[in-house]
Amino acid sequence: MSEFAGLKALVTGGASGIGRATADLLAARGAQVAVLDRDTAGVDKPLLAYRADVTDDASVRTAVERAADDLGGLDILVNNAGIGAQGTVEDNDDTEWRHVFDVNVLGMVRTARAALPYLRRSGRAAIVNTCSIAATAGLPSRALYSASKGAVYSLTLAMAADHVREGIRVNCVNPGTVDTPWVGRLLDAAPDPAAERAALQARQPTGRLVSTAEVAGAIAYLAGPFSGATTGTALAVDGGMQGLRLRPA
Ligand code: NAD
């Protein structure tokens, strides 16, 4: 498949997990792909790698400008870099709240701000934000993370409205629990990793974790030509968590 032939994409957080699967998939389907990450070790050709921290506006600007120059423009921005946080409102202090919002929300704002001048010139541009089912599901012990992803969801809708007349579509994906290195680290830190994994799997009606390939496929759909009439939406990739209301068996 080469539906992305001639298109240039930038994927933040593209060195690992969902971002890496997305960068690889877009490249396999014909896009030229640049990865922006704070740690680009292991990012190989054909992907281009640019080191930047999304909490540092200057480093984001420099990386986006260099990527767009090297690629010869930008058509797709996958705003994916993000970090997790656990706890109720009593568990995380102001410093933690500021840091998670700095990465998960402002990180996407900074990257979009730097990329928009290039995307505007594309004529068929798309931004896909990696949001989360936590934005809408009311998950326990995820107050800070959920609030940050709620902001990403609202940002997606607002940006879709602001840029639709410029030929830029903006959508987000809302994954459930995805089998990524991040979730692996969470499970390793749990008192009983096997029991924790089983609990996460049981939370999703499909009874298993989502794969990175499944999220990458959804992002590619929203970034590509087959979703040309779609903007301002959230696509759930969550094993039925949001849509189904199953009673426990
Ligand atoms: P991951 O840890 O495997 O990958 C995240 C990548 O982002 C890493 O390469 C990391 O270096 C990069 N990154 C983190 N902070 C950064 C910063 N300040 N500047 C630049 N790069 C930075 O995680 P993942 O599970 O693939 O998560 C990717 C996205 O998916 C996140 O936005 C996360 O909130 C979202 N998400 C994950 C899950 C899940 O279950 N794994 C579920 C829903 C949403």
Automatic annotation (TrEMBL):
The alphabetized UniProt keywords are: Oxidoreductase
Question: Which PROSITE patterns is this protein grouped with?
Answer: ADH_SHORT
Kindly indicate whether the keyword Oxidoreductase belongs to this entry: yes
Q: Which CDD domains match?
A: SDR_c
Q: Which residues form the signal peptide?
A: none
Entry's family note: Belongs to the short-chain dehydrogenases/reductases (SDR) family.
Question: What is the protein's given name?
Answer: SDR family NAD(P)-dependent oxidoreductase
